[in-house]
Design brief:
This protein is α/β, with parallel strands linked by helices. It has a single domain (about 5-225, about 285-310), classed as TIM Barrel. The chain contains eleven helices and eleven strands. It has helices at about 50-60, 80-90, 110-125, 145-155, 170-180, 200, 205-210, 250-270, 275-285, 295-305, 315-325, and strands at about 5, 15-20, 25, 30, 65-70, 95-100, 130-135, 160-165, 185-190, 215-220, 290. The longest helix has 21 residues, at about 250-270. It is globular and about 55 Å long. The two termini are about 25 Å apart. The structure holds NADP nicotinamide-adenine-dinucleotide phosphate (NAP). NADP nicotinamide-adenine-dinucleotide phosphate binds near residues 224 and 239.
Amino acid sequence: MSSEQVSSTSASSVQTITLGATGPTVTALGIGTWAWGDKLFWGYGNQYGETELQAAFEAAIAAGITFFDTAEVYGLGESERILGRFMAQSETPIQIATKYFPLPWRFSPSAVADTLTASLTRLDTTSVALYQVHWPLEFLMGQRKLMEALANEVKRGRIQSVGVSNYSAEQMTKAHQYLESFGVPLAVNQMQYSLLARQIETNGVFDAAKKLGVTILAYSPLAQGLLTGKYRADQYNQPVGARRLDPRFSEAGLRKLEPLLAELRAIAQAHDKTPAQVALNWVIAQGALPIPGAKNAKQAQQNAGALGWSLEQPEIQRLSDLSNKVV
Ligand SMILES: NC(=O)c1ccc[n+]([C@@H]2O[C@H](COP(=O)([O-])OP(=O)(O)OC[C@H]3O[C@@H](n4cnc5c(N)ncnc54)[C@H](OP(=O)(O)O)[C@@H]3O)[C@@H](O)[C@H]2O)c1
């Protein structure tokens, strides 16, 4: 992302970013909604439900955040349905990024159109800001055909921009070339990126994205909660859902992360911010657009507070150095 793509406006408004070279302009932080309706991984319906999510949605808007990331597969369509219900009750224009999953039986371009129609119906809208291919899976429909079908949807006006997700540098470059041949630029590659997942810095994805003018959307920017400081070895508490199986959330795993978590707490204190806000600000400083998940109003409001201020260069460096030591 080039610096001119980031515009910081007056104190009352929120930083925005243009997706790719010519895509829509969205807030420089989005809200991820994988946990919205997802029982399997996140335990939706157990400690949080639609009431808490509506409060999160409203808190995000109150803080100026109007960009939400979802996918057809989240909660088997429930995430899109929930967002659709919330948007219908809101007067604020919302920008949605959703995703197409390349399932083996989706082999004809009409599958793209039908899948998008189903997402738009669940979202109760006529178009989305960004439509992303969730994974670079290839069965009977090749990437060229897929990109042509997506470019056609841009021309039909049902999507404003095209993105991919989890694409390697080579796959992203190829997708960019195909789309370009149909007159549409690739706007986004959505990748896992945080202080605990920095692979895109060394595997060529970040460099290629910068060269091509593709915006990196950073998913799991809080490392699924690890970087919020809420999970600690000295006051051990387990996360809910499938994260219990992740060794990084074990007592020993958290002890290993403690030098980084301690630094996040110290920097947060110095800026009167929270560790989550510092971790998200670090992602923004690298030139990516974070889409942290939020299950309630407090989390949404806090995550929105990652915008509007900047870490000092030595702080960014200290966090980067420590992150290299703990992963
Ligand atoms: N393209 C892909 O393949 C892909 C893959 C994964 C995710 N994503 C997208 O990226 C989004 C974000 O990623 P993610 O949900 O995996 O991880 P994340 O944003 O790193 O972490 C989200 C979790 O951290 C906790 N949390 C968030 N903000 C907090 C705060 N301020 N204070 C304390 N705890 C907080 C919440 O869980 P607890 O309260 O339970 O701890 C929340 O569900 C997803 O919602 C989805 O839209 C995309």
